[in-house]
């Protein structure tokens, strides 16, 4: 396992993720950020709690939150910033990936110059 900052998680995002961990009784878990195939643009982001680190994971600790990214996904999301924005219509996570050359209006689907994925029909 290697320590490396692949993505940046803002303090606001880490606060809300830590709250979700507590609410879902996932204290002690890690935040795993993944890239999945599919979505309107071909690839989609995923985040979930994971209790296990894998040997080839990149690991980073930001704002008390341990973040895991697989070696396979790291080049696709290197430099990505995850933030939490609050507005009058509510709040939610935003993902800004400098490697994305196209993205969908949903904000979770994208493609890069080196990896397009397999687009799916949007609902």
TrEMBL record:
InterPro entries: ATAP, ATAP_core_dom, FeS_cluster_insertion_CS, HesB-like_dom_sf. Pfam families: Fe-S_biosyn. Residues 7-107 form the Core domain. NCBIfam families: iron-sulfur cluster assembly accessory protein (TIGR00049). This is Iron-sulfur cluster assembly accessory protein. It comes from Lysinibacillus xylanilyticus.
């Amino acid at each position: 396992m290697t320590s490396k900052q692949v993505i940046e998680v803002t303090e606001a995002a880490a606060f809300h993720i830590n709250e979700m961990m507590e609410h879902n009784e996932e204290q002690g878990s890690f935040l795993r950020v993944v890239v999945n195939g599919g979505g309107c643009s071909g690839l989609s982001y995923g985040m979930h709690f994971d209790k296990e680190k894998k040997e080839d994971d990149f690991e980073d600790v930001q704002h008390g939150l341990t973040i895991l990214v697989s070696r396979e996904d790291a080049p696709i999301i290197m430099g990505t910033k995850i933030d939490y924005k609050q507005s009058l219509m509510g709040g939610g996570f935003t993902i800004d990936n400098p490697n994305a050359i196209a993205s969908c209006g949903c904000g979770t689907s994208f493609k890069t110059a080196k990896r397009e994925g397999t687009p799916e029909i949007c609902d």
